[in-house]
């Protein structure tokens, strides 16, 4: 077989418990790339994220049969964000395309992404037109975008997905970001660069069920918020100020009206009421500052841990380690 040159395109695909549909996905991907005349210009990097089904075995087989395939096998489940980062880190192409392995991101659109890149876009973002998710998930997603965009200076585009293309220069910048609580989409958005968009209708999952349950999604939303915006901290500060302000005004009224002026309005504040307001004042201050400090500490904590983003169990020999 002829020696493969350096690829122009790297296709990075996170995989978690997708054994049932992987072969079909891989074939569709190859068909599309071959139809576009790009098959010999691309490498396909599967990042296996500690699946508990036979995804690893399927990927091993695919990699054996297909010279363009590289595999990265995690030692356990580290999450899609880590899988994407691992894949992006190993990509050698001039442009890197990331997409899900469950066929929800239509592979047929990859040539359109490449076309936008050829025309100069450094980042091409797939925007989900509608979603097959249920009502609850849709409402949660709407709420997240609306809260996030109100809280954060950096706006997120509703429906934007991890179906993306990034240029090599964006890859380098992305990899230079050392934080461990990473949301790939958010970081790429934060980096800026010239962007272009492609809308798509998400397909139904080909097999299996979504791996993101509610608690994982809530965690993702919280991580996005904390890592991209300090505004929740300011809001807590404001709430603290309001509570303290209200109890301060009430306290001042009591002191002036009752103690200094001798109760000309006959409000007859009892000792218990005065004590209550005093306690409210201190509780307000203590709780608010505790909350603010706790958020700062937890943020510093995560950043100082500097854990590796992922631990690679094994990587295929086709140029993964040394590139
Ligand atoms: N995935 C992953 N690790 C995980 C969960 C998911 O690599 O812990 C992969 C999964 O195989 C798929 C993509 O991330 O390729 C999106 O996952 P899923 O379809 O479960 O999420 P959704 O479509 O609901 O965003
Ligand atoms: Mg999916």
How many distinct folded domains?
A: 2
| Major beta-sheet overview | 8 strands, mixed
What do we call the CATH homologous superfamily of the largest domain?
Answer: Spore Coat Polysaccharide Biosynthesis Protein SpsA, Chain A
How large, in whole angstroms, is the Cα Rg?
Answer: 26 Å
Determine and state the CATH class of the largest domain.
Alpha Beta
Q: Can you characterise this structure?
A:
With 323 residues, the chain is an alpha/beta fold. It has two domains: 221 residues, Alpha-Beta Complex (Spore Coat Polysaccharide Biosynthesis Protein SpsA, Chain A); 74 residues. Helices cover 50% and strands 15% of the residues. The protein contains ten helices and eight strands. An eight-stranded mixed beta sheet has the order 7-5-6-4-1-2-3-8, with helices on both faces. Helix 2 links the parallel strand 2 and strand 3. The longest helix has 35 residues. The protein is elongated and about 90 Å long. 28% of the residues are buried. The mean pLDDT is 82. The site of magnesium ion has 5 residues, from loops.
